[in-house]
Amino acid sequence: MLQSRNIDGIGWPDGPTTRRHSGMSSITTTHDRKAVRRHTHRAGLRTVALVEALKGALALVGAYVFIRMIRHDVDFGEAAEHILFFFHINPTRHLSHQFLDAVDKLSSTSIGMIGGIAIAYAALRFLEGYGLWRQRVWAEWLAIGSGCLYIPVEVWKLIRRPNELHWIVLAINILVVLYIAWVRLDEIKAGRGVQVQL
């Protein structure tokens, strides 16, 4: 068994989470408490990070596919109808009409605009995903801020054209924002508790 070292009157026991000062009881250090507290949120934050990175990757893949289609003069309306047919989706449904309208609008968009928007969006998602994976506070605030920006847009879409997709996207967005906000609040409370005890 390792012996504790005594340097300038401070004893260091075998365990890494406590310090024993001469004449005082053992206490847990601020660094160790934060490490334990942040560890409890690691799985949730990494799940959100993977979702954000996936969104960025899908944006880049989608932009690449659309740019290839534009360069090869593909008829977007016909391609959209083939996609609906492939997935056995009824083209007379309201959601199908929205999909066809969106594809029609996209066909008139320039390649530079599609690429620029996709790269900017993907960069933001990858940055957020990296920060959440590494459990950075700035990434948590970024996730809350960007999620809150999308909520009014999703509500507006839902009011204009209510459908299942808009409900699902809005619900997921709200759940992610609430979860990250809860993590931030929990960590702020933990930080204050450590300061009071020390």
Polypeptide structure, described:
There is one protein chain. This protein has 198 residues and is α+β, with helices and mostly antiparallel strands. Helix content is 74%, strand content 6%. It is built from 7 helices and 4 strands, in the order E-E-E-E-H-H-H-H-H-H-H. The protein has helices spanning 30-39, 42-71, 76-86, 94-107, 111-133, 137-160, 164-197, and strands at residues 5-7, 10-12, 18-21, 27-28. The protein has a 4-stranded antiparallel β-sheet. A hairpin with a 5-residue loop joins strand 2 and strand 3. Helix 2 runs antiparallel to helix 5 and helix 3 (76-86) runs antiparallel to helix 4 (94-107). The chain is elongated and about 60 Å long. The two termini are 30 Å apart.
Keyword list:
198 residues; alpha+beta; 2 domains; 4-stranded antiparallel sheet; 7 helices; 6% strand; disordered N terminus
